[in-house]
Automatic annotation (TrEMBL):
The keyword RNA-binding does not apply. The lineage of its organism: Bacteria, Pseudomonadati, Bacteroidota, Sphingobacteriia, Sphingobacteriales. It comes from Pedobacter nyackensis. InterPro entries: LPS_assembly_LptE. It comes from the Bacteria. PROSITE patterns: PROKAR_LIPOPROTEIN. This is Lipopolysaccharide-assembly. One of its GO terms (cellular component) is outer membrane. Residues 1-20 form the signal peptide. Pfam families: LptE (PF04390).
Length: 165
């Protein structure tokens, strides 16, 4: 009976605290605006800008209670895609040099403005890559590779903004 009483007291004491299992801290925030990330990379993939922007919005919607809004938001994400490249990672020389592995790299410049707590604002470049073995053509694999890399990028940006990692 005594253990049950202690558990009840702990439950009620902690129920007033805001605990987030994903580590996100959005205390006081209700809305954010995610502006379109323009593609300024030397090599432009036509759908990358919209795909990245939508994936960042989706991550915020799925992992917080924040609403995406353009009207007086508590936080603003803006920036651009600064790099996109596919380079050989490992060369095999069988009388004809070929790439045994390749690397897709995407770089994104992000400016995050927290209008409620300006100390949490930042402007940084995030870069992620995926090493892959080319099976068929790059065009047949590219969309899946981009999805994998943008998932890593949106996680990094989300954590930097809301978990201060």
């Amino acid at each position: 009976m005594k253990k049950l009483s202690i558990l009840c007291v702990l439950f009620f004491a902690l129920s007033g605290c805001k605990i987030s299992l994903d580590g996100a801290s959005t205390v006081g925030m209700k809305t954010v605006n995610v502006q379109v990330f323009e593609n300024n990379a030397p090599l432009v993939v036509p759908y990358l800008s919209s795909q990245f922007t939508e994936e960042l919005k989706t991550r915020i919607r799925n992992q917080t209670r924040l609403a995406i809004s353009q009207n007086d938001p508590d936080g603003v994400f803006s920036g651009n895609i600064t790099g996109y490249s596919v380079t050989p990672e490992a060369i095999v020389d069988n009388n004809r040099p070929t790439a045994d592995a390749n690397r897709l790299t995407i770089s994104i410049r992000v400016k995050y403005t927290n209008n409620l707590n300006p100390k949490q604002s930042f402007e940084e470049t995030f870069e992620r890559y995926k090493v892959f073995k080319l099976v068929g053509s790059l065009q047949s694999m590219e969309q899946g590779l981009i999805k994998d890399v943008t998932a890593q990028l949106t996680e990094d940006i989300f954590n930097r903004a809301f978990a201060q990692w």
